[in-house]
Amino acid sequence: RDAENHPLVVEDLRKTFGGITAVDGASFSVAEGSLTGLIGPNGAGKSTTFNCITGVHTPTSGSVTFRGNDITGMAPHEIAQQGLVRTFQIARELPDMTVLENMMLAPKGQSGERLSYSLLPGLRDQVVAQEEELLDRAWQQLEFFEIDHLAEEYAGTLSGGQRKLLEMARALMTDPDMVLLDEPLAGVNPTLEEKLLDRIHELREMGNTFLFVEHDMDVIMDNCEHVIVMHQGKVLAEGTPEQVTSDDRVVEAYLGG
Ligand code: ADP
Ligand code: MG
């Protein structure tokens, strides 16, 4: 595979939990600037694959390479620093904090230890300037996803769809160049769904790459140029949406569960 045009390369990835094999030797790569779909029946290993790629889980074996760097087993914040982030199937906002506070938490949670700037007077100004820059970025993202009017609301009061928008906005705080989206449209009403998809295409035109787990085949058909199908922890098929949906093995995997 051409690493130059495929920023993410996953090779022979395996992840076991005790006796359960969640990912069983999956290999695939994602093309630069693409919106690639990752589909497969429930339990196929899609979320675990995302967890292994982004450092939430350490793979049992296999490798993950991003822009030519081996990121296998790195911590999530280290991987985020390289420009690769993900959203979670279940959005992870803190309900007792405001939307804006949640936005400000995202990059700090990823940047590691706190600085003890009391020792260095000049450093304090630097930290304040950084904080202001983050605040600017947070507002930009909230405006981009049209949830800036909710900035002062507690995240716990948001609708399911608004939570998904917040989850996306948070993921973009570190200015990543590739985003893994785990069912970003689940529980989102059709109006917000269209808004989210529009934003994804807009970001793509600006050069972002997306790997996208989605159950709705119509959404995959309409939005992805390439689809990877997982089944029982392995890649069963890949190709255009038309190719994979007319593949007998894929049809059988879905019917057979
Ligand atoms: P998908 O996202 O495709 O629905 P998952 O990656 O969530 O699939 O799950 C794949 C398999 O791994 C399932 O059988 C699931 O029960 C199992 N699994 C996932 N995470 C864990 C875990 N933390 N501990 C034990 N089993 C897990
Ligand atoms: Mg899942």
DSSP summary: helix tally: 9
Strand order of the largest sheet: 6-7-8-3-9-10
CATH class: Alpha Beta
Cofactors and ligands: adenosine-5'-diphosphate, magnesium ion
Radius of gyration computed on alpha carbons: 19 Å
- Shape summary: globular
Straight-line distance between termini: 31 Å
Largest sheet: 6 strands, mixed
The CATH superfamily bears the name P-loop containing nucleotide triphosphate hydrolases
Strand tally: 10
What is the CATH T-level topology? Rossmann fold
Order of helices and strands: EEEHEEHEHHHEHEHEEHH
Helix proportion range: 25-40%
Number of domains: 1
Low-confidence stretches: 109-113
Mean pLDDT: 90
CATH architecture: 3-Layer(aba) Sandwich
What does this structure look like?
The chain has a 6-stranded mixed β-sheet with strand order 6-7-8-3-9-10, sandwiched between helices. By secondary structure, it is an alpha/beta fold. Helix 3 packs across helix 4 (121-144) and helix 3 (99-111) packs parallel to helix 5 (160-171). It has a single domain (8-256), classed as P-loop containing nucleotide triphosphate hydrolases (Rossmann fold). It is built from 9 helices and 10 strands. The model is unreliable at 109-113 (pLDDT under 50). The structure holds adenosine-5'-diphosphate (ADP) and magnesium ion. Adenosine-5'-diphosphate binds at residues 17, 20, 22, 40, 42-48. Adenosine-5'-diphosphate is lined by residues 17, 20, 22, 40, 42-48.
